[in-house]
Design a protein that fits this description.
Strand content: 15-25%
CATH class of the largest domain: Alpha Beta
Radius of gyration: 24 Å
Order of helices and strands: EHEHHEEEEEEHEEEHEHEEEHHHH
Strand order of the largest sheet: 5-4-3-2-1-15
Shape: globular
Largest sheet: 6 strands, mixed
CATH superfamily of the largest domain: Carbon-nitrogen hydrolase
Number of helices: 10
CATH topology of the largest domain: Nitrilase/N-carbamoyl-D-aminoacid amidohydrolase
């Protein structure tokens, strides 16, 4: 049974930048804090662990040093740190969505990904999502995510999806999650900004007037309304002092926070909170979703799949493939006995002749 009400929270908390052990300790502290407030699902910001690369525009030599630091302090699916996080989650009894720099587990690879790790109430890592397309200068930091990680999963509070930063502007990806039945949408960002004419000209938000130009604010309200999802938007806050402790070459400091919680009618129930750490919470009721769907159901009476539909590829990207796998994928499936009989009748042939032709095709 899916709960009729639940408490959602955004952990707008700064990491201990590029420090895996200290960030792990702080992560567990905030999970424990959320547990004492009876939170059902807690979402950490984009690449919270161990920090977003605001230094991405620095000199090449310094960039190389910082990427190596990031590799050493990021998480992978087989990391012992996940067991510690899982034990803390189990004690706190809540779902956690953790924004992290993810180090590839593929043998021989040191590639990083911008990822979400999803933990259930028992602390088990149930799935991950890798950002499909790193934005702008991020392409020099992270690899592109596997299409197979664009997905949803069921929980005791609803079906959960989630996207990272500008993925929340990707029309077809949003449509895919809606078609998968998404009900709860964690959206993670690396800050909140004032936009000056176009996305390439932005500065750190200083007050709530930034909602007039920050594309994130209307995007979260629209996402909630157009998909009738509960949106948990968790945005990164990092103090200037923390950033300065890592690099003097911070070229993109927009780490102002800006987390907010939005109901399926697009109504902001909490936030945005700017320029401070915060555990932002809101109570959600499934009737808020039902009432919006009664008016505009994106997966029911307000759809026309006969006019417009979507093809989603569930593909893992692999560097090696066996000859057998290639043959299996290239070969057509053998026709059924009923189909063979139909072909034989249509062309006035014996069933044995058709079977012989089919066998000959597959043997080649």
């Amino acid at each position: 049974m899916v709960a009729e009400t639940f408490t959602a929270a955004a952990a707008q908390v700064e990491p201990v930048y590029h420090d895996k052990e200290a960030t792990l300790e702080k992560t567990c502290q905030w999970i424990e804090r959320a547990g004492t407030r009876d939170v059902d699902v807690l979402v950490f910001p984009e690449t919270y662990f161990p920090g977003y690369p605001y230094w991405r525009g620095c000199s090449i030599s310094r960039w190389s040093e910082l990427v190596v630091e990031l590799q050493k302090n990021s998480l992978s699916v087989g990391d012992d740190a996940l067991e510690i996080i899982g034990e803390t989650i189990d004690e706190a009894n809540l779902h956690v969505v953790l924004g992290t720099n993810e180090l590839s587990e593929r043998p021989g690879s040191e590639t990083l990904y911008n990822s979400l790790f999803y933990f259930d109430r028992s602390g088990e890592l149930v799935r991950r999502h890798r950002k499909l397309m790193p934005t702008h200068g991020e392409r020099a930091i992270w690899g592109r995510g596997d299409p197979s990680t664009l997905d949803t999963h069921d929980t005791d509070i609803g079906r959960m999806g989630g996207l990272i930063c500008y993925e929340n502007h990707m029309t077809l990806s949003k449509g895919a999650l809606a078609a998968m039945g998404e009900e709860i949408h964690p959206a993670v960002w690396h800050g909140f900004w004032e936009q000056h004419g176009h996305p390439g000209n932005k500065t750190k938000a200083t007050d709530r007037e930034a909602i007039e130009t920050c594309d994130q604010y209307p995007a979260m309200r629209q996402y909630a309304f157009e998909t009738q999802s509960f949106v948990i938007s968790s945005s990164a806050y990092v103090s200037d002092e923390m950033l300065d402790s890592v690099s003097e070459e911070v070229g993109l400091n927009i780490a102002a926070g800006g987390s907010m919680l939005v109901n399926p009618a697009g109504i902001v129930k909490a936030g945005p909170v700017l320029n401070e750490e915060a555990l932002l919470t809101a109570e959600f009721d499934r009737d808020e979703r039902r009432a919006t769907k009664a008016y505009f159901d994106a997966m029911g009476h307000y759809t026309r799949w006969d006019a417009v539909n979507l093809n989603v590829r569930n593909t893992d990207l692999e560097p090696l493939e066996s000859d057998d796998a290639r043959v299996d994928r290239a070969s057509p499936a053998a026709p059924s006995p009923a189909a063979i009989e139909e072909i034989a009748t249509e062309h006035d042939l014996s069933i044995e002749t058709v079977e012989s032709v089919v066998d000959s095709i597959h043997s080649r």
